[in-house]
Every structure is written in structure tokens, then in C-alpha cells.
Amino acid sequence: MKNLQPYEPPDADAIAGAQNEESNLKLLLAQRRLYSRAKTWTTVRGVGVGVIAVAAPLIAAFWEPLAVWAATVAAGWYILNRVVFRRLERRDATRGASAQELFDTAVFGMPTIAVREPRLLPEDVARVVGRGYPRRRQAFADEELRNWYPIRTNVPGRVAIAIAQRGNLAYTRRLLQRHATLWLWLLCGWAVTAIVIALCFEFSLAMFLLAVALPVMPPLVDAWEEYSQIRVAGREREALANEIEDAIKADTASPIAPQQLLTWQGQLFALRRDSPLVPDWLYWLLRDRAEAEMSDAAETIDETLTRQKEGM
């Protein structure tokens, strides 16, 4: 198998320094911009269907002859979402995950062949991040890309990598859960509101189906589907994070094998590639809190390891 080639993790100081090298920061910048492109399609999907879902019941209430047109637009937009916009979103999300994978393998000193082949060439990275070091340096600062992982330099390199992998899993899981919960509550709330509007204006059954059910149900189904996917992905992330945490705590007695780090990295890439996306506005709103929680968790694990060493 491809992931059986020799691998020796670098020490923690080398990892901490590597993540701030310009060549690796360029990969992180590419990752952020590719994910932002993907989230543009996420926004198009959400805003388009959301506007239709909000507008259709109101249109039917005040301009009844337009209800059929609103239902037609809702059906057409739903098809566009499924056939076009979601495919474009997944394309850029996969490329963003590949950029993150290139960053991780460079920082952790991993062979890129150890995981799924990244679909991003150096020319692609250059095209995404642009030319000119001063401009890129400002982008590094604006996007807060330095010190991406909370690397503990007082532990072996294998443990530092495992802590970083676990922290990324927990960080993303929390963002996804908050996004899914917010989106689901908003749509459920509007579904109830739309039904109240229908009752207040005494819609006929046909009008209710055209102005409420048809425009509101597709985004509600989308939200439930995404919520379900995030719950599944969250459970997978939680299980993997717990597995890594257990291995970290047992490292003193049973050192983490380099091959195990490669296996976890492959699983992490697959989760990044296939997960739903968190909108940029929500990402920036929650980022500081999520990063603080990730750093606190890394510090707690570090303290546990220190106590284990002192007790030996």
C-alpha cells in the first residue's frame, strides 16, 4: 500500500518553525481562498433558496396571481442548487482540502503519497495566492495564518503532530455543529411563520402547496440533510479525536507509531474533503472562541503528559 513507506516525524521545534515558512503560509492562503470560493457557491445556494422561501408566502398573501411564478422559480432554483451550485461548491472545497493537505504534509514532514493524492499543482497555488511578497505578507496577517497549530515544543514530534491533528478535528466539529444548528433553527422557525401566514390569509389547499410547501420544503430538506451529514461527520470526528487523544495519553508507555500518524492524516483529509462548509461570516464570528478552546485543550493534554512523566 502507498502509506507503508518509511516516515520519521520531525521534532516539535521544526514543526513550529515550518508552519510559519512562507512556502507553507502560501498553501494556507490558497486553502483559505479556495474555501472562500466554495463558500461563495454555498452562499448563492442558501441566499437564493432562502429568499424564495421567505418571499413566496408573502407574495401569495399580497399578490396572489404571482404565486404560481414564485413556485416555478422555487422549483427551478432547487434544481440549479442540486445540479450546478453544489457541484461547483464541492469542486472548490476539494481543492481547498488539497491545499490544507499539502500544508500539513509539508509541516509534519509527511510524504504526500501517504495520503490521498492532492489535486492541486504548484501552478494552481501560485495562481490562487497571486504574486508579490508584500501583498502576500499582508494577506498572511489579515487571515491570521501564522502559528496555525498550537504546537507544544516540549513534547516529541509525534505527540506534537497528534495534538495538532486532534485539535483540528475538535475545532472543525464545533464550528460545523454550531452552523448546522443555527441554519436548522432559522428554517424551522420560518416554516412555522409561513404556515401562520397561510392560516391568517386563509390560503386554499392549492395556494398553500404553491406558496408555502413548494418554496419552503426544499430549503428545509436541504437544511435537514446538511444537519444529518454534519452529525455523522461530527461523530466520525469525535471518534477519531478520542482515538488520537487516547494514543497521546498512552504515548509514554506505548509511543505513537509514525504509520499511525499517516493513517490519521488520511482520515482527516477525507473528512475535510467531504464535510459541509461553514460560511465565512460565521467562521470569523466563532474563530477566536474555537481557537481558544483548541489551545486550552492542547494545554490540558500537555499538562496531563507532564504529570505522567513526573509520576514515572
Pick out its properties.
312 residues; mainly alpha; 9 helices
Secondary structure: elements and pairs:
Blueprint: H1 12-18, H2 22-62, H3 67-107, H4 122-129, H5 133-142, H6 157-200, H7 205-249, H8 258-274, H9 280-311
Helix pairs in contact: 1-6, 2-3, 2-4, 2-5, 2-6, 2-7, 3-7, 3-8, 6-7, 6-8, 6-9, 7-8
What does this structure look like?
It is a single chain. The chain is elongated, with a radius of gyration of 23 Å. Helices cover 79% and strands 0% of the residues. The protein is built from 9 helices and no strands. It is an all-alpha fold. The model has no long low-confidence stretch (mean pLDDT 80).
Summarize the structure.
The protein is mainly alpha-helical and about 300 residues long.
Rg (C-alpha, Å): 23 Å
Strand content: under 5%
What is the terminal separation in angstroms? 38 Å
- Structural domains: how many: 1
Mean pLDDT comes to 80
Q: What is the count of β-strands?
A: 0
Oligomer: single chain
Low-pLDDT sequence parts: none
Strand/helix succession: HHHHHHHHH
Helix count, DSSP H or I runs of 4 or more residues: 9
Morphology: elongated
Major beta sheet summary: none
Percent range of helical residues: over 70%
Structural class: mainly alpha
